Model the fold of this input.
Amino acid sequence: MPTPTGVGTEELRRANLRAILQTVHTRGPTTRAVLTRELGLNRSTIGALTFELQSLGLVTEQTSAVGGRSGRPSHLVVPCPDNVVVAVDVGVDRVAVALVGLGGDVLDRRDRGHQRGEHDVAHVVESVAQMIEDCLAAVPSKRCLGIGVAVPGAVRTGDGLVRFAPNLGWVEEPFTELLANRLGRPVSTGNDANLGVLAEHIRGVAVGYSDVAYLSASVGIGGGFLVGGVPLTGARGYAGEVGHMQVDSLGPECRCGSVGCWEMKVGENVLLRRAGRLPGGGPPAIAEVIASARDGEARAAAAVDEVAEWCGVGIRAIVNLFNPEIVVLGGVLSQVWSAASDRVDEALSRSTLISPRNDVEIRSARLEDDSPLIGAAELAFAPVLEHPQMVPQAV
Amino acid sequence: MPTPTGVGTEELRRANLRAILQTVHTRGPTTRAVLTRELGLNRSTIGALTFELQSLGLVTEQTSAVGGRSGRPSHLVVPCPDNVVVAVDVGVDRVAVALVGLGGDVLDRRDRGHQRGEHDVAHVVESVAQMIEDCLAAVPSKRCLGIGVAVPGAVRTGDGLVRFAPNLGWVEEPFTELLANRLGRPVSTGNDANLGVLAEHIRGVAVGYSDVAYLSASVGIGGGFLVGGVPLTGARGYAGEVGHMQVDSLGPECRCGSVGCWEMKVGENVLLRRAGRLPGGGPPAIAEVIASARDGEARAAAAVDEVAEWCGVGIRAIVNLFNPEIVVLGGVLSQVWSAASDRVDEALSRSTLISPRNDVEIRSARLEDDSPLIGAAELAFAPVLEHPQMVPQAV
Done:
């Protein structure tokens, strides 16, 4: 039961301001008529609130020639793309940086390998900072609303401390603070899978779904969840760590200290080794194994089969725990699902699924490997979408 | 991101009415002064709203002799115990029925074994209905606000269909509809662990916590979760099924069709068999094994040790998935935790816990085996707490 709270009229006005901005950011240009109908507010309220958003430089209004039912021209409320955020995805192999406009368009995009292949936090901070500065220097007239970063690890709510990012070798690294100090700007950091589910919910296959499980595997497995439309963070921001569920007491040993963790059964390198390949090739190497399996190579086929089986075991646990409407798969999970959905489904359905199988959709992520990057943009937009009146006025 | 919604002033008034009633129901008698301060409303608004709640027969006002800071006597808003609900807990061995007053006091309580030990749904419905009628017949002047039932199974949101209650042998049983038709009254049904976490949150060890995992084991294991203060239900109400996470590919076989499910490692009968006892003795038999282990019986001690180890494995998965502030244990999990918390903790901490161990409290349920029953009462109160103005006016 939520704590009872009194609500005042100023809060009401802010809620409505927020509702309009969120709507045009998510859906794109929207007529006043549609806003009036969908938000259940009257025309003059909508008019006053869109005027306020215009004054804040967050939207513009265009008069559409296409009339509504009344035949009158309708005012189109348009998110103003002079407002941008910088989104960053810190991967194990590379850093991706994107300039994203209010409304969600990617205006610029840069990728760079880690300097000398290193994950030393000071190097990563410097490299990311330079990429962000380059990106912003190219658009001096834009207003930067924020910087959002996706990291493959557990990130503490509040200060963005990276508690544990095993594939970067980071433990308790104050990454967010270091980057913010280096840039002289606030930075928000989130777990890549938590941001992935957000992106798929706002702009991907999970639009319109409230209960979503996003599971993405590369070397490890990340999990991000929406529960009743709300991101699952847990008490400190560490929720969603699906990779270390013990599924097999026989092993193998995991670098976490336990045995038989789920990510030791379905990670990229597990599949590659089982197929007799060298580890480390990433998604293209996985694609090669899958193609070889299809062409009849027995060892590749057995590897895909085995990993598909373990995909089913883990997804079953997640479905029974969360009863999601949709499971969105990324990385090697998506590749295996696309290649061997029958096999995954067989493992999933072999034992009791509490929810009927037909009630759960399983889909590959629409934004593919960019779900965390797009989610990082949404993380950066979030404060302005929550409090439009607090938008920074300086460019 | 929650769907943007416009908020009107009538909705605001209802939210404040709700906030007052929820506060006095949860905390008991509360002064107007405290309500004014905590809900952030002015004195005249509180006065008008409590007057409305009095008209609805939901609260009474008493003038307290103890003055506030001003020295003036303060009006004490008191939940009116003429409003009751009937709470039911359908267990595997027995049915418990309680009459609970607004404010949470248990006014009457009855337990009865299943008729002829049977779980046939028609028999259970008839037995429960008679117990409810007996309970209400004893208090003819009370106003019954609702009937809430806890069931050890997956319950569909909306119609309360029991999709799967393996320990009762129920599959897709329209239990709620049958009971409502038999009584001629609406009935709300929920999963026992989902109601258990609610009760522990409102009146137990989890008061004040927003992220709570409640894990209770008897023959099977039930899981109930609060996520950011909100009950986790999943898309259809089936979330929280923790018992069938695969933890060991070696087995044993589970009645669900899979192998090595968590509940095959920590259920009551698992512990009893490992200790060389006959299954079926329930909590007293578990207590005997624990006492024998303490007295030095090697086989009992080994059984407790082994189950404690598997408790740790499962709790670790839950902590990594949900990052709760507190894990509340019921049934055999609570018994094993009380007897062997060091052993559970050792297993829990052997491998990586994403959240620092100190950030997670582990506690036995305060309401003990009654958490689901008290939660069923809260389920029955919920519609009136949500919409006080819709309280039934007839007694």
